[in-house]
Write a structure and sequence with these properties.
By secondary structure, the chain is an all-alpha fold. About 75% of the residues lie in helices and about 0% in strands. The chain contains ten helices and no strands. The protein is flat.
Length: about 230
Amino acid sequence: MKKKERRIENISGLTCLFLTLISCVVSFLTKNYYIHALFVFWLCTILIYFGLFKQSLLYGLVYLFTAFWLLEIVPKGVMIISPMLLGMIYKFIVPVMAGYLTFKIPSGKIIAVFQKSALPQSIILIVIIRFIPTISGEFRNIREAMKVRGFTGSISKVLFHPLQTMEYAVVPLIFRSIKVGDELAAASIVRGIENPNKRHSYYSTRLGITDGIILSISICLFILSLTV
């Protein structure tokens, strides 16, 4: 597991961003179900390679169920599940999978890519990039605190008392979000985000062998999705 965790530290932020962009284009432009499924399989393979087996299995099962229901059940007139909802899942699961990989790498790698680019630097963008993983950690802490206090002891308690569960989870999360946003903005200013001079990052934006393989196969699948 530690070896796989080191693998995800070696991937470039540029690779993750480019893979997410390609995933969005492939998902919404390709009309071929087989190419779409092939790209999902490729993303599952990437997630497994970086040690995200459970997430890969979950996304794969959701995709298989959605595709099967849309292709086999809906044409028969069975509308138990909204076809519009299934269609949204079918389209968005590809960029979500690529975005999940981007979410798992250190946020400093994404910021390093923007610092190397010619895009204007913005404190708002930096705060947003760092805010998502930070607030996810805060939500995990709130969930653990709820378990310790017995608010989410069982699934039935969550299902039969949804408003109470939302109150215990959402209210602390809102207050923590406000505080975390202020802390991240202050930290960015202290680290010189408003400095007009050129900044350097701890993380390198150079592409390695793994990045080259991922980008090469992804581009080939991208070209295939546009031609088939």
